[in-house]
Amino acid sequence: MKDVISLAHGEGGELTHRLIEDLFANAFCHHDQLHLDAAVVTCEKKEIAVTTDSFVVKPIFFPGGDIGKLSVAGTVNDLAVSGASPLFLTAGFILEEGFEIRGLKKVVQSMAEEAKHAGVRIIAGDTKVVEKGEADGLFINTTGFGVLGSKKVNGSNVKEGDVVICSGTIGDHGIAIVSAREKLGLLTEVQSDCASLNHMIDRLLSETDGIRIMRDPTRGGLATTLVELCDNLQMTVELQEREIPVKREVEGACDILGFDPLYLANEGKVVIIADATEEERILEILGKDPLGRQARTIGEVTSVDKGKLLLKTPVGTTRRMDRLSGMLLPRIC
Amino acid sequence: MRAMDLFSDTDLTLQSLQAVIRVAEQFKEKYKRAPVFMEVCGSHTMAFARSGIKKRLNDHVELISGPGCPVCVTDQKSIDAMITLGESPNRILCTFGDMMRVPGSRHSLMTAKAAGNDIRVVYSPLDSVKIAEENPDKEIIFLGIGFETTIPILTLAIREAEKKGIMNYSVWMTTKLVEPAIRALLDAGEVKLDGFLLPGHVSVVMGEEKYGFLPKEYGMSGVISGFEPVQLLSGMYKLMALLLEGKPGIINDYQSVVTKKGNRFAQEMMDRYLTPFGEEWRGMGVIPDSGLVLRDRFSLYDAKKKFQISMDQPRKTKCRCGEIIRGLIKPEECVLFNKGCTPLNPIGPCMVSTEGTCSAHYQYMRED
After folding, report:
1. Number of alpha carbons in the 13 Å side-chain half-sphere of residue B361
2. How many domains does chain B have?
């Protein structure tokens, strides 16, 4: 029989102990603090950014990543776009009885790899097991802590003429998930863009001035993210449709499935609003990073009132964009 | 450059746009008014709106959206019946995603799903046959909504169920045909048109010759067109050229995929499994032979025969989808548009279907 998660793995007894000792502690490298009920960390006297996110993506393994990689990168990115350097993560697992331990190992391994890559430590965790049918395989919650740098990126100083830069092609994650989930058999397999962006963003913040605000356009896609920003900061942004980078295969899949790439989730992209004088420098730094190679300026802030997101089509007409309404793709992250 | 890139190339789009404006002005000079075209395909409606072409040509060409969105033209009674159909234990209702948020008189399929009913979105009717195979103790029903583009795939699903001897599978057929709808519109004479932009995908199945009745019986011209910006504009240009010539005709401007006779296999499949039926259309009533239902010998797969659904009178609203489908009013003329009716809170199907005219206007043509 396959080695699977049983309810006993969540009972706090021998099996729980073994799971923590052999799998989690090993992968996340901290045997030293195993006997404590809380992790103890040291922080300099700085402002701390905290964020939390739950991951329920289906399928758990998809082209370009898995729920483990996503649960680290997603939280790391939330910290990074807030102007914080991510330091620590906690991880909570909800496992469904019967989930294969081999699969869990794989997920934990990718969390460890992604954490190493991002330079963060996973310092505390929890495991619960629920009866078969009460969850779908594996859910993960991660909470992230980071220290804020000296540069504020809260958008308070946004002004007319600021540029909007997108770090690469949009919609990759959404299409990767839907084609893996529905087994669409599209000719080209689209890889999810799932990646931790903190090193690239750190470089941007340390080597340029004039970044007003950043966001990672995850659920709801680039359009919903920018509508939120426009609304919050009461600015109007005009995007140039022809400048928005979309992979050909993503465009094709969208045509077939009736999706708009502007509303598809991304898990490794950042959208930046910055002073126009820094545009070239920002694009240069992004362009040197494998995660930002296809970065483009996609629009500008046209006024600091009204709070509208507008899209200019190649034929010269303008239309207003709204938040994603209703459901496009559930359980995308 | 690949052909598809050429068709969406910005420079070529802009040049084509100028060419269309030029011939539209010639038309205006000759007839003292702008030409009025109807696109009879939901994907065209979306493509014209999304690309900005419809708005850009606003002063030059009047483009009216016709009854081309399959969900939108479905009668409300039928929509309500389909939702009720999914609200029964031991059934799995399978549907294209488009139907999920369409408002019923009581609620939508989405609400019915949230209440615990097993309602699943599939991308192909063949997936629903697989679901039937995997759930032999349940009845699996597929909501067969669509025009000639979708109908052949429905017959493939039935053939698959037949081949595998699957007995717990059926299709709720509410299919629609393009030709009877165009005839009904022209016969009613409510909307004055100069010509048609004919549906590219439907034509792949039915063939160019299908539209011979337009010039022959109605003195009307039409151009079969693709969906990329340059193709849309080329279709318009050629339609206007036909009108300026004054000789009604049909042009196939989508020759890469549309042949004279269409897809024979698809037509044979339709003929084998299905027979014409007087379908009821939203806002248009029953149109004779405007849909296809399963032939008697395939009753086993006919959900309408398998399940008795009581149909109440639909809830009355101020929704004017019926008139929008007939091309009589624009979405903005409906009192509900962007007020009581938005994609988040739709009152009629045209606001929520991905091919609906209201949805196209709301998503792609508003500036405020």
Report:
1. 19
2. 1
Q: The domain spanning residue A248 has which CATH number?
A: 3.90.650.10
With tokens 């209703």, the residue in question is A326
CB-closest option in B53, B127, B352 to A315: B53
For residue B220, give the nearest of B186, B248, B262 by alpha carbon. Answer: B248
Task: Say how many domains are in chain A.
Answer: 2
Kindly give, in sequence order, each residue whose CB lies less than 8 Å from that of residue A73, ignoring residues fewer than 6 positions away: A65, A114, A118, A194, A195, A196, A197, A267, A268
Domain membership of residue B367 (yes or no) is no
Integer Cα distance of A325 and B343 in angstroms: 6
Task: Flag whether pLDDT at A141 surpasses 90.
Answer: yes
Which residue shows structure tokens 């140039």?
A: A240
Of B52, B53, B343, nearest to A326 by CB-CB distance is B343
Instruction: Show which of residues 226-265 on chain A sit within 8 Å of chain B, judged by CB atoms.
Output: 242, 257-258
The confidence score (pLDDT) of residue B119 equals 96
Name the average pLDDT for chain B: 94
Residue A88 located in a structural domain: yes
pLDDT > 70? residue B126: yes
Does one domain contain both A178 and A113?
Answer: no
Pair (A235, A139) in one structural domain: no
How far apart, in Å, are the Cα atoms of A155 and each of A41, A213, A235, A272, B315?
31, 5, 10, 10, 47
A257 contact residues in B (CB cutoff 8 A):
123
Res. A32: pLDDT tops 70:
no
Q: Is residue A36 part of a domain?
A: yes
| CA–CA gap between residue A306 and residue A185 (Å, rounded) | 44
H helices of A119-244, where?
A: 172-182, 198-207, 221-233
Can you list the alpha helix ranges (DSSP code H) found in B32-75? Answer: 42-50, 53-56
Q: Do B55 and A319 touch (CB under 8 A)?
A: yes
Give the model confidence (pLDDT) of B47-90 as tens digits: 999 999 999 999 999 999 999 999 999 999 999 999 999 999 99
Domain span at residue B168 reads 29-362
- Number of residue pairs across A and B with CB atoms under 8 Å? 57
- A315: contact with B, CB 8 A cutoff: yes
For residue range A37-82, list pLDDT tens digits in order: 788 888 777 899 999 999 999 999 999 999 999 999 999 999 999 9
Token pair of B282, please?
């939203």
Residue A15 banded pLDDT, cuts 50, 70, 90? confident
> Would residue A35 count as lying in a domain?
yes
Q: How do residues A76-88 score in pLDDT, each as one tens digit? A: 999 999 999 999 9
Write the CA distances from A21 to A104, A106, A112, B275, integer angstroms.
14, 16, 15, 67
| CATH code where residue B235 lies | 3.40.50.11740
The tokens describing A257, both together, are: 């499935």
Structural domain for A78, as ranges: 7-148
Q: Do B17 and A318 touch (CB under 8 A)?
A: no
Closest CA to B60 of B31, B27, B30: B27
The predicted pLDDT at position A2 comes to 66
Instruction: List A residues 166-195 in contact with B (Cβ-Cβ < 8 A).
Output: 182, 184
Whether residues A81 and A190 fall in one domain = no
Which residue in A182, A316, A320 is closest to B123 by CB distance? Answer: A182
Q: Do B13 and A182 touch (CB under 8 A)?
A: no
CATH of residue A41? 3.30.1330.10
Query: What value does the mean pLDDT take over residues A182-207?
Result: 90
CB contact under 8 A, A315 and B97: no
